[in-house]
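Exercise 7b. C-alpha cells:
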C-alpha cells in the first residue's frame, strides 16, 4: 500500500536590511568554482553586495589569507563587491591602484550599512552549505528555491503555475517510474522443453514528489512512495541583503 505524507510549513525570517528575493539567473558552475567550502554569490543572487574598506586591505590568492600569495591592496574607503565567501574569509573585487583586483580578505577589514553584515552573511553561508548537501544527496527541503529543487531532482514531470499581482505560485511534480518486465512460459513443440519468454514491458510509478511554492520558494512537499514516506526536511529560506 502506498504511503502518503504531507507537510505545510510557513517560513519567514526577520533580519535587518532584507530585500525581496531576486534570484540569480540559472547558471552552470564553471570548473573554477568547485570548492565545496565556498559559496559563490553569482550563482545565488543577481543583487550585488557592496562594502567599503575601512583600512589598508591586503588581498590574497586563496581563502587561507596570509599563508597564501599577496595580490595587492586596497586603500581605505575603496568600494568593493563580494564575489564568494567561506566561514572566515570573503573573496572581493574592486579597483586598485593599477586596475581591477580580485582576492580574499578578512571581513574585519570591511564596512557595510548593515552593522550585522558578518552575522547575516554567516546565516547565508550556513544555509547554502545545507542546500549543497541536500543537492548532493538528491534531497529537497521546504525553504529551497525552485532552482535549487531542480538542481536536486531535475526537471519536473508536471508543472502547474499561477501568476498574480502578488507573484508566482504553483505546484511541480517529480515522478519516478520503474520498468516491469513480464514473462510467459512457452513450450517448445519439438522438444517439449519449457522456457521463459519476454511477453511485454509496463511502466509503473515508483514515487511522486509534489512541491508547492510561492514566489519561487517551496512552502510544502508531498511525497508518495511504494516503500513508505520519505523524510521531509526544512531549511531557512533564501536570505538576501540590501547593501
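Sequence design result:
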Amino acid at each position: 500500500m502506498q504511503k502518503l505524507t504531507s507537510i505545510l510549513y510557513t517560513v519567514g525570517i526577520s533580519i535587518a536590511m532584507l530585500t525581496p528575493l531576486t534570484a540569480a539567473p540559472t547558471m552552470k558552475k564553471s570548473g573554477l568554482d568547485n570548492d565545496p567550502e565556498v559559496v559563490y554569490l553569482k550563482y545565488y543572487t543577481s543583487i550585488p553586495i557592496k562594502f567599503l574598506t575601512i583600512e589598508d586591505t591586503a588581498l590574497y590568492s586563496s581563502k587561507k589569507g596570509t599563508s597564501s600569495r599577496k595580490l595587492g591592496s586596497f586603500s581605505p574607503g575603496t568600494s568593493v563587491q563580494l564575489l564568494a565567501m567561506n566561514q572566515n574569509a570573503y573573496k572581493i573585487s574592486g579597483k586598485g591602484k593599477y586596475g581591477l583586483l580580485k582576492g580574499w580578505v578578512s571581513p574585519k577589514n570591511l564596512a557595510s550599512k548593515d552593522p550585522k553584515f558578518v552575522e547575516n552573511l554567516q546565516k547565508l553561508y550556513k544555509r547554502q552549505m545545507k542546500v549543497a548537501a541536500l543537492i548532493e544527496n538528491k534531497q529537497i527541503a521546504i525553504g529551497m528555491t525552485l532552482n535549487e529543487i531542480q538542481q536536486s531532482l531535475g526537471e519536473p514531470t508536471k508543472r502547474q503555475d499561477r501568476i498574480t499581482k502578488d507573484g508566482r505560485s504553483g505546484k511541480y511534480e517529480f515522478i519516478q517510474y520503474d520498468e516491469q518486465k513480464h514473462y510467459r512460459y512457452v513450450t517448445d513443440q519439438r522438444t517439449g522443453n519449457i522456457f521463459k519468454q519476454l511477453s511485454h514491458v509496463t511502466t509503473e510509478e515508483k514515487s511522486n514528489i509534489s512541491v508547492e511554492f510561492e514566489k519561487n520558494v517551496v512552502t510544502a512537499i508531498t511525497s508518495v512512495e511504494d516503500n513508505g514516506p520519505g523524510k521531509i526536511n526544512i531549511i531557512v529560506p533564501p536570505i538576501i541583503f540590501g547593501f
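Instructor comment: The longest helix spans residues 117-136. DSSP finds two helices and 15 strands in the chain.
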